[in-house]
Amino acid sequence: MSITFRIPVLALLFSGLLRMDLAAQELPHSFARPDQVVVKHLHLDLSVDFEEKQLAGAATLTVERRDKTVNQLRLDTRGLDIEAVSCGEAELDWALGEEDAQLGKALTINLPKYDSLRSDRIKIEYATRPSAEALQWLTPEQTTDKQYPFLFTQSQAILARTWVPCQDTPAVRMTYSAKIKVPAELMAVMSASNPQEKNASGIYKFEMKQPIPSYLLAMAVGDLQFRELGPRSGVYCEPSVLRRAEWELADTERMIEAAEELYGEYRWERYDVIFLPSSFPFGGMENPRLTFATPTILAGDRSLVALIAHELAHSWSGNLVTNSTWNDFWLNEGFTVYFEQRIMEAIYGRQYSEMLARLTLDGLLAELTELDERDTWLKLDLANRNPDDGMTAVAYDKGYFFLRMLEEEVGREKWDAFIKRYFRKFAFQSMTTEGFLQYLEANLDAGINLKAWVYSAGLPDNCPEVKTDELAKVAQAAKDFLGGQSAERIQSSYETADWTTHHWNHFLRSFKTADLSIAQMQDLDAVFKFSRSGNSEITHDWLWLVIAAEYKPAYLRLETFLTSQGRRKFLQPLYQKLAETEEGLIRAKEIYTIARPGYHSVSSSTIDGILGVE
User: Fold this and answer.
1) Catalytic pick among 338, 348, 396, 400
2) pLDDT tens digits, residue range 56-82?
3) Residues 510 and 372 in one domain
């Protein structure tokens, strides 16, 4: 017997006493006051200077005064050098506030007296600093082809303010346009309409007609080439990567079609992907029209393209309907993991997607034991904290299982119809957890204890079960190996030649608590060649075991892996494992001294904390 939970705020929403006014709510990670004056459009006119590691030019903000009695615009900045602020021909008074360790400085601009016949267009002349956290400046040696420098941005969660003065909160959405000047031998692309070939002038113009939050502002500049994947999809990357990237992403158009079949029209015109150099700190970033992707998914067998399905799914969850604050992060990521699984099921079958789901559940259960209890709620509390602290398996995977539980409770047909209505109704808007729950209760009579999922720790008893015969066989293979069977016997008995990446992930993770001997590590490595694997997911799981077992023949591979890519998902567990012993900590710091200059600040700030580096 299930019990339907009614949280008090929902009663207020239904009664009309509490409006779902996203702009008026408290914004825990922004100085902005969009309930008073809100940015509606941004135009950037910037030059890219690789020698100075600087963007310089102007941002022109078109604003709307929601409160006609207020004549101040409040923006977020961090480390920006503001030179002048004007409206038309008139110079405006402005001031930067006190520095906040997490948020930077508020930029307060005194606006002209309100005139209903005039549009407020505020021009801010400024320059970034080389230390801007959103900007990764790479020398030619740090790129794949090692011919030209490269720049890419990472604005999520609150780093847009380090390269653009803006209302840096997902509660505010704006359209934008840009003119970007780069060296003639390079190409610029953005999360907007994009060129498909270089031009001689080095000047590129962009337009994003759909309103987006600031964390989806994105730009990359480098020696880029483009290859079409389908009528509305393509891939950008350095020349030497192009053929591998085109082959790996061959199913992109099928993914778009599968997603549309599930959740309605793709609203962003094109879906292109850019493969960045290996220092990119994430697997992918869902910048609209142009997903940023790590080259670590180029496995040569399309086994890691679930990441592309995930970033594509963000075209609905996150980009189309956005979490209003970072406390509501699960609305972006839980939905996206759910969509990713459904897309993979539609293309590769239920057996394949259930392997992914099982690995997801295993990872979630492990991470729940490591987190503070309050951080295992879906509705986060990130006040006075970096919102990156909320980027855990809870938002992603507990969110996924919450939505999967709802699907299984009401039936897939009814659930899919509800989801389509939800994304159609709230398209290009921001959403709170409470707002979603209100809509859920009003439109889907699930009879579910919502509190246990959203406002309680851990996983409720009604978490869906995930059973997969394929991974059960893998688990038995690992058990047989631990019981004394040789790796060669495992190879022949279980036909491992047919295993996918997900089989190998499960196999290697089965040994995490096994305390493997050096002889066992040698046997595994000799037969399965793990130390020579070119698959980043398999390599990561193997190297964790290498550290745990102190398997010295693979130490060089460990160093190479940590110094050749900057994906935080891989770096964090390996450095943490190294830091558990005195000898490992020494080795970790030696490797990190070499690797740190090539890491993005998102990764280096995490590893600094693990290793105690100032």
Assistant:
1) 396
2) 999 999 999 999 899 999 999 999 999
3) no
